[in-house]
Specification:
- This protein has about 140 residues and is an all-alpha fold.
- About 70% of the residues lie in helices and about 0% in strands.
């Protein structure tokens, strides 16, 4: 699923970024920015957040999703992605916004879970979590506070 979601999201970002850039006046140097910068920024921020989260899961640390910079970077990617999707059409509507949000959500989830899916430690973490649940222990890495 990750391969499909990420490919679809990146192609979609390039396409809506290009169309959003075309909405800017001719001769504006910023016309190239949305299609060129949106995909790498989305990949960088989502994979970075996913990598940080995955390392904390492996190390049994507190969830880094409680860190402000990780949440802020994911919110930034989501807002800018949905904005490009809505701004790329001539007649924005609720359905365009929902489609943009759905594609953004699927793509960001796929990018976020790439580090976990690619990790050699995934089977060990799954076995460890299953053993903790069978033993009645609470999930590791989460604070009760």
């Amino acid at each position: 699923m990750i391969a499909i979601e990420v490919q679809m999201y990146l192609v979609w970002l390039v396409r809506v970024g290009y169309l959003t850039g075309q909405e800017l006046p001719r001769g504006d140097v910023a016309r190239w920015a949305p299609p060129v910068l949106s995909p790498p920024v989305a990949v960088l921020f989502c994979v970075m957040a996913g990598w940080t989260w995955w390392l904390s899961v492996v190390a049994r640390n507190r969830s880094p999703l409680r860190e402000g910079w990780i949440v802020a970077s994911l919110v930034f990617v989501a807002v800018s992605s949905v904005f490009c999707g809505v701004a790329s059409v001539d007649d924005p509507s609720v359905s365009v916004g929902l489609l943009s949000a759905a594609v953004t959500g699927l793509g960001m989830i796929g990018l976020f879970f790439i580090p976990a899916a690619a990790s050699r430690q995934l089977p060990d973490v799954i076995r460890r979590r299953a053993a903790e649940r069978r033993a009645g222990a609470g999930p590791a890495g989460l604070d009760d506070a």
